[in-house]
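Recall from the previous lesson that a structure prediction takes nothing but the amino acid sequence as input. Here we apply that procedure to LuxR C-terminal-related transcriptional regulator from Streptomyces nigrescens. The sequence below is the only information supplied.
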Amino acid sequence: MPRILDGHLSRGQLAALLLTANGLTSRQIASELGTTESGIHQRVNEATHALGARSRTHAIAICIARGLIAIDDIAIPGQQQAA
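The prediction returns the following tokens.
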């Protein structure tokens, strides 16, 4: 299991948060990343803790504020994504 220090996230944790930000369920994220649903819960919980966030939503907001997730990487229903 990757160690988390000073709010740094593993690639898997960041990927899980990005897919969460795009509205996927834990089951869908697990399928996308080739892992289990409980593994996704663990990744997101560890990332949330590492960031000092109070919830998944707060963790995503922190990632956006820190530039770890770009607004353009989040799909908005009814809008085309930037190329």
